[in-house]
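Good morning C.,

I know you're traveling, so I'll keep this short. The sequence:
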Amino acid sequence: GGDALTALLGRAEEHPAVRAAQAALEAAQAQLRAARSPVSLDVSTSLTRLDVDDIDVNPLEPGVQPLERNLLNARAGLSFRPFAFGDIADLVDQREVAVAQAELDLRATLVSVQVRTLEAALEVELARAGVQVAAEGAALAREALAATELRALRGAATERDLRDAADGVVEAESLLLDARANLELAEAGLRALLGGDAMPDVDPAAFDLPLPAGEPVDVLRAGLQVRLAELGPRNAQRALLPVAQASYSFNLGDHDTLSLSLESRTLQPSVSFSHEAQGRAFPQTEIRGALTVGVAWSLSPEAFDALSAAEAQLEAARLALEATRQGAELQERALRSAVEQARRALTLAQARRDAAEARLAETRARVDAGLSTPLELQADALTLTRAQLELRSANLSVLRSTLDLYELYARPLTAAPEASPR
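The tokens, ready to paste straight into the viewer:
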């Protein structure tokens, strides 16, 4: 039933490709959280060994200090991000696009594996039906041979009738062997996808999947590329603007300094503490604080070229989105037309199966009345066998064409409305 079909599709989520896509999404989400983090901490340290010549100085002389050979520098910085601005905002937007792309990749991968799993299950179901039908055909062929031999003993059948009946048995048994080989191959394919030896007890062909709708996944991907390309001109235009920086440093002592800084490209305040083993010499020891304000402005031709390139990339991304949307519309139309054609073929196959069943019933009645031969019964039975297989194949074509639409939209089958039993 529907629960068994849902369980079958759920096993596709354990496929390595799906798990890899899930891991990629989790990594993208972690990078987005890092970009949105309001606080960042930087710690650095270094030890420098100086190789100097000894000099003869009076250490008691004012303003003169002995030169230390081992210098320890340590620094700790803390940045606050109360809001996303400038370069930080671009980074957050870029990470958001990366998360959206990873989500689409996960959807597309999951749908692909689910479709392959369902198609493999359909192949198994079709192969099982083929074995059953072929076995019934072989049994009918043997019955026809036995009846023909009995008629031959009575003088009502010729040697040619016996040869035709025997050939029919050989053909039917050959079809049965082919059907069993196809079943083994189909089961091996499904087992490889499910990653185990247990075969699911489910008949996917007994359910109709509703036709999906939405935005094709290729269009969504192209839209994300436009969002990503929009960051280029913003960043390039910001490169043409002057950058203002301000900082204030307070000397806590001869070795320690506390600094507060702000930069116009991010507007994120930064506080840092630094320590140097080598003490400050006179007159630096008398300086308790320093305020620094600076402006930098670069108007190189390279910056203007970068802006032009970014604008051209944005225009290319927009044109690619339009082209992708037009192609997706044509593809969607073709896939929906294929579904309608498959449904018409299914209706025709059902009519042929019904006609073959009616003809076999008529022939069986004629044989019982002595108005027809067992060979005619065998021929009609084989015709019904082919009609049944054709019907199942047509049913599989309808489902396959429907699954193509699910892949077009990257819509997981487990998210589809409840499938209705046939």
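Safe travels,
E.
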